[in-house]
Amino acid sequence: MHEDWHLIESSMAKQYGIRIRQEKHMPWSEFVSLVSGLMADTPLGQIVAIRAEKDPKAIKSFTVDQRRIYNDWRSKSAKKHLENPEKLDQQMDEISKMLALMFGKGG
């Protein structure tokens, strides 16, 4: 959320006309509701759509900036997994156990 704060601010301003820095007392629950209701045509909505794209044809047609956003997000996600090798090892163990059970080699 910290790295996307500028997108949240501009999206809230665009969609709701709310300038977050000028708000004195917005309850957290209201803030969360407003952010979760941001539409695709806001700056945050557009970035999230790029980051979440799965269609290879759409990805292939990305502009240079869209590709940079997409690749940066994927790199950060991969780096997170590498920063916590214990969690990655645990997930791999769980997958191995599930596969063993699926193919009759588990206990």
Provide a brief overview of the structure.
The chain is mainly α and 107 residues long. The chain contains six helices and no strands.
List keywords for this structure.
about 110 residues; mainly alpha; about 70% helix; Bacteriophage Gp15 protein; Phage_A500_Gp15
Describe, in plain words, how this protein is organized in 3D.
The termini are far apart. The chain is mostly helical and 107 residues long. The chain has one domain (5-102). The protein has helices spanning 5-16, 28-36, 43-52, 56-60, 64-83, 85-102. The protein contains 6 helices and no strands.
Please tally the helical runs, counting DSSP H or I stretches of 4 or more residues: 6
Helix content: 55-70%
Number of domains: 1
Shape: extended
Unreliable spans are none
- Compute the CA-based radius of gyration: 20 Å
Strand content range: under 5%
Structural class: mainly alpha
| Main sheet makeup | none
Mean pLDDT comes to: 86
Present the secondary structure layout.
Elements: H1 5-16, H2 28-36, H3 43-52, H4 56-60, H5 64-83, H6 85-102
Helix pairs in contact: 1-3, 3-5
